[in-house]
Every structure is written in structure tokens, then in C-alpha cells.
Amino acid sequence: MRQILFAFLIILLQVTMLHAGELQNKNHSVAVKPEDFEGKNISEQISNALDFIKECNGGTILFKDSPVYLISEAIALPSNTTMIVDGCKIKLADQVFDNIIRSGNLDIDENDPNGYVKQLLPAENIKIIGLNGAIIEGAENFYEGVNPKTKVKEKWLGDYWGWRNFTILFSYVDGFEISGLKVQKTHSWGIVLTNGCKNGYVNNIDLHTTVKNGDGVSIIQGGSDIVIENITGETSDDTIILAAFDETRWSNNKYVFPLLPVRYSDYSYGGDIHDITCRNIEASGVHHVMILLPSQPKIYNIYCSNISDGPKGGKRKVVRIYGNGQYGQGFKPGNMYNIFMNDIRSYKSDIALEFLAPVYNSHFNKITQLNPKGKDVQLDPGNVNVRITNSVKK
């Protein structure tokens, strides 16, 4: 017995030492501030700080020493980087057309900087952590330029101007977090996750995206194993978007630049949206709180709870499920399945839960319509094995 016990203790000691070694290796990363580096302006200092982190194969960049960091180009975060915004504001300068923050894996074509990138490289382990009232904010005076299609000078606002107009953009990132931020004065959509982002966490975000096409948090063209929770605020378009597009949606000639950094028909990074959890979403504004948009790619294994337009209202639907050609012609019945939602609550929306396309093998529980003129559920006749339980119109 003593020999067995001694052998067990030796194994336990070895495991403990191995784990300690792993932790020690994980702590081999630098911590820097933009102010630690030279540069002709703050954007160049930030870029030099991130280059240093990249040399070290990871680290933390801390924004804290200035109340406002007025940047003139996007902050492009490399893999294994944590960006901490502590009690300050990251703000885009006037007349700048760019993201505020994006993953640093986009190889941008200098000859066509707003079009498709030359290549989208894999990235991993990128975090943006806001503390003590951190703010991400667009410009006071938006970029004005000549529309390449109409030849008319105008403000470049909204989704017609493509991916470069998104506030925070992560593409093809495995392992990420975006948390603790107030996002306001956006030029287009707020937080956008495209092309197969996975293993992510978006939480404690206060949205004030009241510009044209001011969508909130969007997963576009592939995404999996992502949790979105504790989202509040006001959006001038949809607050949570799960969108699996195909090429046909974007033939609209009003779109000047592409919404994605790679072609919509390129599903090599991902197309399906699956294993997504959304919890505690309450937003006012325009259009809908949450929408699902499948086309040729599929949407499945979606788990949601506590989705509401809030007492301020303004939304048309709390949850709206598209599919039959509204955002792409490739949709087939069966492309949406395993959708599970609990506690969909409408204060002022006209419909709490609306189906515009069939859903398979799903369950929606506790749908509450508090608007006396509204409707609790609008079903699609093509639904297969879809349960609606505890639906109440008050």
C-alpha cells in the first residue's frame, strides 16, 4: 500500500510541476503602453508597440495614461494580444475612413485598400478588454469623399461603404474576447465577426450605434462556439445578427465596397453559423433585436435566452428569422435547425417572434407580448418539428 501511495504522490508531483511550467510559459509575455514607444503621432506609437508585441509572440497593450487616444488609422491587433482600455476613450480622428480596431491578419491591397484583401491569414487569441467606463467612439466629423460609382461627394456612412467602415472587425480569429465597452458614434456597424471566427466571447457591451445601418453585434459568413451576452443600448438597425450570406445578396449596385474582406462565395474560412449562445440582450432603437439570415450556408445549434426590446421599445420585431431569398437565393428548407430560445419578451414590438422561413427541430419557450396591439408569434407553414410553448399575449 505504501508503495502504491508513494507512486501516486510522485505522479501527482510531476503533473503539478508540468502545470506550473505551463503557467510559467504562458506568463512569458510583455506589457506595454503606446507612450513607451517613439512615433510622430499616437497611431504610429501604437503601431510600434504592437510590432514589439508581435516580436515577443504575444503581450498586453494598455491604454490608460491619456483620457482620449485620437487615432488616425485602425488599431490592428496581432495574434496573442490583449488590448486593455482602462478608463479612457479610443476615438477616430475627423475625416478618417477606417475601422477603429481590427484583427491584424488582413493583408490589405494597397492598390485597392477598401476592396477584397490580398489574403486573410489565420489569427488567434485576441482580446479587447474595457475597464472603468472604456469607450470606443467614431469621429465627430465623418469622412467625406467622392462616391466612385456616382461621382458625387458625400459622407461615407453606413454599410454601402463596406468592411472598412465597421467599428470593430475580427475576421478568421480563433479565440477572442471583446468585453466591457461602450461603443458609440459609429460610422456603420458596431462589432463585426466575419469569416469563420470561433471560440469567442462578446460581453458587457453598451451600444449606441445610431447612424445609418447602425447594427450592433454581427456574426457574418461563418462563426462557431461564440457566446454573446449582456448587451444593452440603442441601435438604428438590428442589434444581434447571425448572417450566413451568399453572393446574390450583394449584387445591389448601391454597395460601393464589399462588406467582407474576402469574396462572399469564398467559404474556405467558414460559411455555416453554429453553436452560438446569446443571453441577456435588451436594446431599443429601430428594426429588430435579433435576426437570423441563412442562405446557402446553414444556421444551427443556436441557444438564446432573455431577448427583449426593453421598455423604450422602437423595434419592429424582437426575433425575426429570414431565409426565403431575402438575403441570398441559395436557401433551402432544412438550412436552419436546432434553434432553442427561452424568454423572448416584447414591450412595444409589433411581433415578438416572426418566422419568414422554415425552421426544423427547434423549440421556442416563454414568448411574451406586452404590446396590446402586437402579436406574440407569426409562424411559417413550412416549419418542421417546431414547438412553441408558454406563449402569452397580455
Considering DSSP H and I runs of 4 or more, what fraction of the residues is helical? under 10%
How many discrete domains? 1
In CATH terms, what is the architecture?
3 Solenoid
Please report the distance between the alpha carbons of the first and last residues.
Answer: 69 Å
Number of strands: 29
Specify the CATH class.
Answer: Mainly Beta
Radius of gyration over alpha carbons?
Answer: 23 Å
Annotation field: number of helices = 2
Residues in β-strands, percent: over 45%
* Topology-level CATH name: Pectate Lyase C-like
Largest sheet: 15 strands, parallel
* Overall 3D form: globular
Q: Unreliable stretches, pLDDT < 50, 5 or more residues?
A: 1-25
Mean pLDDT: 91
Protein name: Pectate lyase superfamily protein
Organism: Parabacteroides chinchillae
InterPro entries: Pectin_lyas_fold, Pectin_lyase_fold/virulence
Your description of this structure?
The chain is mainly beta. It has one domain (65-393): Pectate Lyase C-like (3 Solenoid), CATH 2.160.20. The chain has helices at residues 2-26, 42-55; strands spanning 30-32, 59-63, 68-71, 75-77, 81-86, 89-92, 101-103, 106-107, 119-120, 123-131, 135-137, 144-146, 153-155, 168-171, 173-184, 191-194, 197-209, 217-220, 223-235, 240-243, 273-285, 288-293, 299-308, 317-321, 336-346, 351-355, 360-369, 375-378, 384-393. It has a 15-stranded parallel β-sheet that branches. Strands 4-7-14-16-18-20-22-24-26-28 form a 10-stranded parallel β-sheet. The model is unreliable at 1-25 (pLDDT under 50).
